[in-house]
Records
---
Amino acid sequence: MEKSCQCARKKKRSEAEEKSLLNRLHRIEGQVRGLEKMIGEDAYCVDILLQVSAVREALNSFSRLLLEEHINSCVVQDLQAGKKEAAEELVMLLRKMR
């Protein structure tokens, strides 16, 4: 069985969802720029590591939000349409996200 190229798949997001996701990414981008500034200013290692931890948690939060939306929209719609491979794809994704 030939696997289809998934690179062409897209999802139309609501304006509110897109704005929320982009706002989170912009905040994360600012946090990463803050890390760069801390390095340039010779900040103490512990302070930098704490900021790295905050960035990691912000990315995890972003991922959880996106995963929740994916399950509630894409996965549900695919399963309702009889596309059982959506469940397999979700399981594979969860394994990779550890």
---
Amino acid sequence: MRELVLTPHFKKAYRKFVRRNVNLQTRIENTFEQMKLDVFATSLNTHKLSGDLSDLYACSCGFDCRIVFTIETDKETGKEVIILLNIGKHDDVY
């Protein structure tokens, strides 16, 4: 099970995104739980990005909700962690 690390930018984008649609909060939190268990589960539609974002991944948490993240190794523990970078509508995060 991987740990999720929320960057300051992600936290700000999350608060702003959820404020627009409170019903999304539960769906996003369920997505977080699924990401911890298996970030490459087919239900998340996780995919590697290309172009300027080629080192990053994105997954879906609803029709028009995307989470952009990277997977890195924690230097202290040696475990893989998922670093959440951005959340929002498709056109806003890419």
---
Amino acid sequence: MFEGLTQRLGGIFDRLRGRGALTEADVTAALREVRIALLEADVALPALKDFLEKAQERAVGQNIIQTINPAQQVIKIVHDTLVEMLGAETVALTRVTNPPTVILMLGLQGSGKTTTSAKLAKYLSAQKQKVLLASLDTHRPAAQEQLAVLAKQIDVESLPMVVGEKPAAIARRAMDAARRQAADVLIVDTAGRLSVDDALMAELAEIRDISQPAEKLLVLDAMTGQDALTTAKTFHEKIGTTGFVLTRMDGDARGGAALSLRHATGQPIKFFGVGEKLDALDVFHPDRLAGRILGMGDVVSLVEKAAATLDQAEMMQAAQKLQQGQFDFDDLLTQIRQLKKMGGMKEMMGMLPGLGNLADKLGNTDVDERAIKHQEAIILSMTPAERRDVGVLNASRRRRIAAGAGVGVSDVNKVVKQYLMMRDTMKQMKKLGKKGFLRQMGAHGLGMGGKGLGGMPNVGKIPQGDAPSLHNDDTRR
């Protein structure tokens, strides 16, 4: 997410820190470089001009040259101004006092509107809201069937399809069905076009008048750049949007249009998608995104994600085994699956302060979701006895496991090496006790700033040669 911009800004700030004392010319030059970085990220000129004026005003007004740490002060000014550009505060969904709350999903074809509708339904269902999904897209082939399939996957009700029914009639039927079922929320997935046209706007205006939605969310593809801004302005003028959902925020595009949306339309970004999975929808927090863009991490979102995705019972059981110094391949498999739920090592490291650059390096070395799947397949190819006792894994067994997992024997050997190192670490933890183990970690540089992460050797370390690593091939994000 904004990887190119993060790297550029990180380089600018690193140079500032290296200078110690700053002159006014240093600050002016740094802001000029920030301007170039934002331009390259495709930030709209009006938003960029406003950003620079406010940043320059704050820099002069606070007299940062005389502060104890002027470089950090410059970073704070850029951060605060960036937060203001993104919208300053998180804006929650509007709820009506007399349900159902109708959410109208708008967008062009290919923006991810139907998938986003299902993601939003899953998000609201997790909040104990009864949701009904309704597709009004009679133009795209199988669009209504697609939403019905997605609804079934997330265990949410969808409006039954009636062949030949017009969008306006479907909207009226959806409203009646939502009231009869006592649904809290009705999510209406409207039709899109390849581009904005009068027929589309007339159809959406009629549906809006029938459903009287509390929210009109425009789904925009973050990878379309300035086209997303143009689309946003048109929809807002014609239909009256109440907010935006940005999809493909995990892509490699410059993404600066996302930074300009609030400035261009006055409407907030409410959610953003970071993957194809139906739980890959995050609430938009301007301050957290600004922190991630500037390499400050996003620990709050990381903790929230862990609480929402990780199995608490499994974690408690694993903690008890670790305290007893026990660790087998089933435990390693549990860790791998928990890591997958969290979005992978790169996603986690991108949320940790100071580790954003390392996350980018991980992305450039074949470390990705497919590597995690390989690790998982290798362990699943073992018998229960082999998972419990690594000592029985002779050469012939390793060849059988490699064939079963569809990988090479060298990949099996790496997983075994990784397991042995982690098992030895856990035994050391039990032997030294918590305080002694932490001292040992510090002595060997195994803390967050050292060779590994959290005392687990090579987890999060850039693989070198044939060194064992939890992730060792392929790329994602």
---
Amino acid sequence: MIITIHRGTHQIGGCITEITTDTTKILIDFGEELMPQTPIDEGEILRGCDAVFITHYHSDHVGLHTHIPPHIPIYLGKVAKQILVELTARTNKENLYKVERFRTYTPMQSIKVGDIEVRPLLVDHSAFDAYMFLIKAEGKTLLHTGDFRGHGFRGKGLMPTLQKYVGKVDALIIEGTTLYRDGGEAKTERALQLQAATLMKEKKYVFVLCSSTNIDRIASLYHANPFGRYFLCDAYQKAVLKIVRENVGPRSSLYDLQKIVTYGPNIEDRFFKRGFCMLVRNRDDHRRIIDKYPEDERLILYSIWKGYVEGKHKSERMIRFLDGLHYTYLHTSGYADAETICEVVSAVSPDVIYPIHTENAAWFKGRFGRVEVKT
């Protein structure tokens, strides 16, 4: 088994990993870069490829799927595919047919491509229905973590899954997104929910700027919303949440998101009277809605990555949206903290580590000196 990291060892986003045997070649993720910095020859990478497995629907992992020829099968989680279809129908409709052709996989059910076996393992991440891949070929075992964390609602299943279904591996490809900063232990999603509940009681009209596909964050806010108030969003957001509710809601009260109302100016008088929590994005029409409500009675929560408003990745569109607004930062990472990364390495005891999705690959050499680290 030959492992080739085409992109990701020294940058966050744009990950592409190749796994090759004498007879078979697969790719893990085919993402676009957050900022163009590592040119690749896509045609050469795709040459002879038998299948592409996508860990989750974030664009830095799936964004280049439109470049994959139709004869190469692309695999994504079942619910993740439905969410990506809804997102693509809104933002990139001309390529909708390319997402609809995706095949799907199921947790714990292996897929055989030539002599490579891929077993998807469900993980907690800010993208819903995200996966690690346990890969076996030519007598070797590899774990590709994708993006993951241990501090979300489903994070408690991480270590039991590794201990029961993975064990020792020959090679570990692991993300290190948060390692560029020393942020300590990450705030849990549950702690964020409790903090949101306290803040929401202080103001009648609550607007939350968050990702439309960060389902666990939205579930946190939904359950934190004070009793008797509306939970509002636009039609697109409601469609995304309907997918989650119909697929997972019957098995988990966390995702039984039924009492959601689409914002409409025809019933604004009800919203003014009862109060609400509304999910918003950095759109002009959403900003106009915010401006309708009195400043002294509204709370604006910024619940996405800080990098959109500061640093080298800041978004002028986001800064323009927030101009003149007083907001409170309320967020926790979708990625594993250093302690969780160490726990994963310890659980699977790899002979070699390939850091990806990181700007600090050297951290792994400093922390796991006895393990070979490919950077």
